[in-house]
Design goal:
By secondary structure, the chain is mainly alpha-helical. It is 60% helix and 1% strand. A two-stranded antiparallel ribbon has the order 1-2. The chain is globular.
């Protein structure tokens, strides 16, 4: 390993000694944040950041009983079986290539993308990016097993099935989404309000899903962009929770190259359903201006997120840099969104 990938491996080994959640339901963002830091030129700060972050983490939960190919459906969505699930996927990626395991389990897990506020799929996206970048690294393969295990344990369906079949663009559909009336809800509480929120299902189903896989990739990138820019204007609704409207679909976008192309359309539809739910729950009703990023480089934006220290600021900046890199004509709105996250999350902390 070179210095960068070696740092990531060391950090993941440290984090695998802890469970995927703490304080009952808060997600362990360590694997996601350190991967983003390494990928964006901040490897030198990883262990120092972890020294602070890991104090809040908890031990790996007690295992209950092995999960098998014959009984896995009974354990799907059972949060008490997360260690059993991690062991199951650890065995799977030992016996078979990781991309085969991912291709088999992705369509099984995808309907439950909303579980744990979309953190499991985000963790999978970071793990897959590492594998596509680093190659067959054992620690990164183990991280994929942890991420898939977390997703299986936290698998949760939205209360209403979403079947996008309209002709709207991601930006137009996102802008038209109504808001859930009650504020300050947990994701599970909020999801339960979606069927009674006037216009939410109709607007969510107004999106167009292309048939061509390459068009799907482009449409998913457009969704990530729209959700990132939406945060710039509406992130003050909930500075922490709204980041997932962008980071969850970006995790799916990062995973597409490792998936069979016939799974791409369903992946986009699920990513949009999750993003629309998070937006309806946590985006502010009216916009406010974001910080100006015209004189700031992407590297400086990410450095500010790392200096902030909050894992959500780091992950969102990572996604915003993806959007900025794909933007044309020097568009800095994604960087403004990242600076807004640093500001808002700093205020909330």
């Amino acid at each position: 390993m070179d210095t960068t990938s070696g740092t990531l491996g060391e950090a993941l080994q440290r984090l695998h000694a802890s469970g995927p959640e703490f304080k009952g339901f808060l997600s362990n963002h360590g694997p996601m944040a350190v991967e983003a830091m390494v990928r964006n030129g901040q490897a030198r700060t990883v262990h120092r950041w972890l020294d602070t972050y890991e104090h809040k983490l908890e031990d790996v939960p007690r295992a209950r009983a092995p999960i098998t190919d014959a009984d896995w459906r009974e354990a799907l969505g059972d949060t008490g079986r997360v260690t059993d699930w991690t062991a199951y996927f650890g065995g799977q990626v030992t016996e078979r290539p990781w991309h085969e395991v991912l291709a088999e389990w992705w369509p099984r897990l995808l309907p439950g993308i909303a579980g744990a506020a979309t953190h499991p799929v985000i963790r999978v996206g970071h793990a897959v990016r590492s594998l596509l970048t680093e190659g067959e690294d054992g620690v990164c393969v183990a991280e994929l097993a942890h991420a898939l295990g977390y997703w299986a344990a936290r698998h949760l369906l939205l209360p209403t099935a979403v079947r996008p079949a309209g002709d709207a663009t991601p930006a137009a559909a996102l802008a038209a989404l109504p808001r859930v009336a009650d504020r300050g809800l947990t994701p599970v509480q909020g999801y339960a309000r979606l069927p009674q929120t006037p216009g939410w299902l109709e607007t969510t189903e107004s999106l167009h899903v292309p048939d061509d896989p390459e068009a799907v990739r482009g449409r998913l990138a457009a969704l990530v962009r729209a959700a990132t820019l939406n945060y710039a204007d509406h992130g003050h609704g909930d500075g922490i929770m709204l980041v997932h409207a962008a980071t969850a679909p970006n995790a799916v976008l990062r995973t597409l190259p490792a998936l069979p192309r016939e799974l791409w359309a369903d992946s986009f539809a699920a990513a949009w359903a999750a993003a629309s739910a998070i937006t309806a729950l946590y985006a502010a009703d009216t916009p406010l201006p974001a910080p100006d990023a015209a004189s700031v480089t992407p590297e400086e934006v990410f450095e500010r997120a790392v200096a902030n220290g909050n894992e959500h600021a780091i992950k969102f900046a990572d996604t915003a840099l993806d959007v900025a890199a794909a933007s044309e004509d020097g568009d800095t709105r994604a960087l403004s969104a990242a600076l807004n996250a640093v500001r808002l999350i700093d205020e909330e902390d």
